[in-house]
Amino acid sequence: MSRLSQATLAGLPSTVVKPGYAGTDVQIGIVHFGPGAFHRAHQAAYFDSLLASDPRWGIAAISLRTPDLVEALAAQDGLYSLTILDRTVETRVIGAHRAWVGPGEGARVRALLADPAVRLVTSTVTEKGYCLRGDGTLDTAHRDIVHDAQHPDDPQSLIGWIVAGLAARRAAGTEPFAVLCCDNMTGNGRKLRAAVIALADLRDPALAGWIGETVAFPNTMVDSITPATDAAHLARAAAALGVTDLAAVQREAFTQWVVEDMPLPGNPDLASVGVIRTRDVAGYERAKLRILNGAHSTLAYVGLARGHASVAEAMADAPLADFVEAMVRQDIVPALDAIPGFDVQAYAGAVLDRFRNPEIRHLLSQIAGDGSQKLPYRILDTVAAALAAGRRIDRLAVPIGAWIAFLRGRAERGEAIADPLADRLAQAVMRHDDSEAIVGEMLAIDAVFPASLASDGDFRAAVLAAYRDLPTGVLN
């Protein structure tokens, strides 16, 4: 079977959506670090749509660590398919990538970052790729940062490359590019800005000051479930295209990209392709964290107790689905501050509809990991707000009680607990057999439960009732 490329593009089936522009018209205006599946399914799709009306926003894909993906893009003239997994499955070819750069090609990276036509630098390198400490500041002891401080013109880290690119533009008198972090970190633009300035200061305090005064680092939020590409998906893509595509990606139909509303070089009309521009990215983050992630955790712990394996299966359990919807609409949404132009109840409905998508198999066991890190932000902040406002908390206590039961079950069966506090959690749930004592031990873990909650009698009683009533009584 032949390979997806510019030569085979015109011959693809009519059911496949093709780029709405000629590849020869596209200019490179974006340098993206970390062109993994999420970037190609998410940000690249937005820019692909924008290229139909503004050809300045082609993407140069840079992989600092592994060559496989950029080699696949090179072999396919930058083309790949995006499969939208919904009730009706759609296949679309993305052509936004016009350059692809792998490890060891530093000269090409330097040239791209220095090019005045490049107005945006974007990144999806996972949280660890930013070389940050636990408090979100630059880890100056990280080996890549140590190297970049000593060898600023031959960087190894993303932060080092951003500093090197901005230093070159300052020296040339070229307008700086803006930097958009597209990884899921709270306040991601603020954290990236501080890290870049910190490394630049080690090189040249004047450069650090210039970056702080002139470079935009907007906060962003991204969302779309993007299952990993496996052999089954590659076969599915080949069947839809009639050609082989080794860079194929897939995602759910829902996609959201929220970008802080500040001037960007070149003024890309992101809003025209569905990007939300707002002054309150944090408000969108809280809505996602509490509605989407809070509901996910509830489905995970209660769903596993009721014998389900995936989110879609759990949502097919009518009593559980009704319970989660009531919790979201009646308990979580009222605890959120209003955001101008954002219909939170409509967003809640969209989230619940996403959970029912039969094409997405999101395992509850994956969501259930790291509960000690997730639940304080996903559930406990809402509990605290409800208590302060005098609202009911019995439903909100259910995921906490179900989490405790989940941990107890794992410990009793001798199964590993995926959590940074695994040992402490296992000891807490196994020290006693009495339900009240077990709940008391868990609420005493101050790394999870603030003292104001742990000592609240109503909260303790609600968690105990939820723990005792699993797996069915809590839904009544």
List its traits:
11 strands, five-stranded parallel beta sheet, globular, single chain, alpha/beta, 476 residues, three-stranded mixed beta sheet
What does this molecule look like?
Helix content is 48%, strand content 11%. The chain is of the alpha/beta class. A hairpin with a 4-residue loop joins strand 3 (80-85) and strand 4 (90-94). Helix 11 (281-305) crosses helix 16 (371-389) and helix 16 (371-389) runs antiparallel to helix 17 (394-412). The chain is globular. The mean pLDDT is 96.
Strand order of the largest sheet: 5-2-1-6-7
Helical residue percent band: 40-55%
Shape: globular
**Beta-sheet strand percentage?**
5-15%
Oligomer: single chain
Weakly predicted, low-confidence segments:
none
Class computed from helices, strands and strand pairing: alpha/beta
Counted beta strands: 11
Overall average residue pLDDT: 96
The Cα radius of gyration reads: 24 Å
Biggest pleated sheet: 5 strands, parallel
Number of helices: 21
Q: State the end-to-end distance.
A: 56 Å
